[in-house]
Amino acid sequence: MEIEALHSDTNRATVARDVEAALLEDGHLVLTGPRLACVGAALAAWSGFAALPLELRQRYHQSVRAGEARGGWSLMREHPVYTSHMGAGELESAEPKQEYGFSVETGRTLWPDEQVAPGFAAGARAAAELLDATSRALLAAFERVLGEAPGFLRHAPAYMALKHCPARPSGAADGTGLHEHSDAVVFTMLAQSMASLQIRGRDGDWLTAPADPAGALVVIPGDWMELFTNGRIPAVRHRVLDTVQPRTSLAFFQNLAPMPVGPLARFVGEGQPARYPTVASDIDYVGGESGVPRWQTAQAAASAGVPAG
Length: 309
Ligand SMILES: [Fe+2]
Known about the structure:
Blueprint: H1 3-6, H2 12-25, E1 29-32, H3 37-50, H4 54-57, E2 65-66, E3 69-70, E4 73-75, H5 80-83, H6 88-92, E5 98-103, H7 120-145, E6 159-165, E7 176-181, E8 187-192, E9 197-200, E10 206-208, E11 216-221, H8 223-228, E12 238-241, E13 247-254, E14 260-261, E15 279-280, H9 294-303
Helix pairs in contact: 2-7, 3-7
The structure holds fe (ii) ion.
Fe (ii) ion is lined by residues 181, 183, 238.
């Protein structure tokens, strides 16, 4: 699907029908078009930052504060959500993955200046701006797919992560950088510099996502679409394989402001009982297990009388 279609004010109903058809047929969307050149540029500049000496990068670690601004770089193993999905090879590695994540609306990131990382700050901001606009258009299309009015999906600022993974010799540990899982979001948008991300198609087979950040963006529905549609549009399970060359990737997670998420009336009826619980969109992942959807963890905690999160 052309990303351009999402940035046009006309034909919104047609766009939503195309989105629905792709989700029902393939399970995911692949957006293409020249606008994505800025995502490729952002990943290239991020790769340059990741190649800098650690002591230089540490000046922009998430713990660093300078007035209102604060750092954005951190190790993936510093995120409990990621840690639960990591393979043994990654957890034991002396040179771990790193990411530079930021929320698209805060604008408070302590960016490395031009001399330190040429093109990085401007490139990442440009990519975030494009993806934020794309994400809002997708949310509107998803509302139509759900049969709901505009504004039903309560917008929350997205979290965008730039990831870098150093070369990993083949045969290390289980060879999987991130175990198979789904994301507790409406959808995730993904781009990568090398073939490593794999997603499950509707038939259950693994597909390797395009390794073309300047030309292809993959959109995978998350847990909330599965719950809202009572399983009609399942969350796409995905995993990341290790590569023998260093690689970079970008993930844009679109969650919701706090609201209940559960099977909508139009997806429940005679012969179609609700197969999912209703949970809060901001439930915490901490305490979850690798590969187990967050809503399942929350449901188990609730039935055991333990507050989720
Ligand atoms: Fe994920």
